[in-house]
Design goal:
- By secondary structure, the protein is α/β, with parallel strands linked by helices.
- It has six helices and 14 strands.
- The protein has a single domain, classed as Class I glutamine amidotransferase (GATase) domain (Rossmann fold), CATH 3.40.50.
- It has helices at 20-31, 64-74, 78-87, 96-100, 204-219, 231-245; strands at 3-9, 36-42, 56-59, 90-94, 104-106, 112-114, 122-125, 133-143, 146-156, 158-161, 168-172, 182-183, 185-187, 190-193.
- Strands 2-1-3-4-14-13 form a six-stranded mixed β-sheet. A four-stranded mixed β-sheet has the order 6-5-7-10, with helices on one face. The chain has a four-stranded antiparallel β-sheet with strand order 9-8-11-12.
- The protein binds glutamine.
- Glutamine binds next to α2 and β9.
Length: 251
């Protein structure tokens, strides 16, 4: 039986926006296909993980204060994480986690939280708690040559700069910054995005893209995933896309 091993970073700290739902969606879509999934949580004080031992590393979003706390722990694994990224382990990073894999995150009070500096971007929050990118988002993403609309919800004060390989083009809502045309950060085995929702619950094609990428790498095969019955997911997507894309581009 095929298996996927997921490392779930800081589930007790990066849990403010319901990103745990992404783990549930991955688990559902893997087990529906008879693929075993092993989910290993890691947080401060746990035995240090070897990031290379996993097929997928996931981390969600959180508040500035929590980011400041865990950044001191995360930085310990910088070299191991960099090695795992270079070895092709898949990283799915949402919002706060996205920010911490860059050069730094300057929070709303002006504190500089050092990032892992694995990716070239940096993030600075506007020093006004009321000025946050909050709202629904639709982006156009190229997944292995297939244009796919990805739907989510953003809630961040941080404005991210110097992204040279964005995840997608904004069709509705904010991007890496207020009214930015581009959203997120994308490499072959890295998706970093501001889209909560949780992200994967609204985007079955994206979920399957990630699953296939991880399985193909692990088993060195071109795996064809058995289609699942996504009638309800697609009905929900149609409602959301009709609602958002019929409007003026920006909220
Ligand atoms: N605290 C960060 C910000 O406000 C990240 C927020 C999040 O993870 N949604 O930008």
């Amino acid at each position: 039986m095929k298996e996927l091993k997921i490392l779930y970073l800081y589930p007790d700290i990066l849990e403010l926006y319901g990103d745990f739902g992404n783990i549930q969606v991955l688990k559902y879509r893997l087990e529906k296909r008879g693929i075993n999934v092993e989910i290993t949580p890691y947080s401060i004080g746990d035995n240090p993980p070897n990031f290379n031992d996993y097929d997928l590393v996931f981390a969600g979003g959180g508040a500035d204060q929590e980011q400041g706390i865990l950044a001191k722990d995360l930085i310990k694994y910088k070299d191991n994480i960099k090695e795992a990224v270079n070895n092709g382990v898949f990283f799915l990073l949402i919002c706060g986690a996205y920010q911490l894999f860059g050069k730094y995150y300057k929070d709303v009070e002006g504190n500089i939280i050092p990032g892992l500096d694995i990716f070239p971007y940096y993030t600075e929050a506007i020093n006004d708690r009321k000025k946050r990118c909050i709202g629904n988002i639709v982006i156009d993403v190229n997944l292995d040559g297939k244009e796919t609309k990805v739907i989510g919800f953003g809630n961040h004060g941080g404005q991210t700069y110097d992204v040279n390989t964005p995840f997608g083009k904004v069709l509705y809502g904010n991007g890496n910054k207020f009214r930015d045309e581009m959203e997120g950060f994308f490499l072959k085995n890295v998706i970093a995005t501001y889209l909560h929702g949780p992200l994967l619950s609204k985007n079955p094609e994206l979920t399957d893209f990630i699953i296939k990428h991880c399985l193909d790498r692990k088993y060195n095969e071109n795996i064809i995933l058995e289609p699942l019955d996504d009638v309800f997911e697609n009905l929900c997507r149609k409602q959301l896309l009709d609602r958002f894309l019929s409007k003026e581009k920006k909220p």
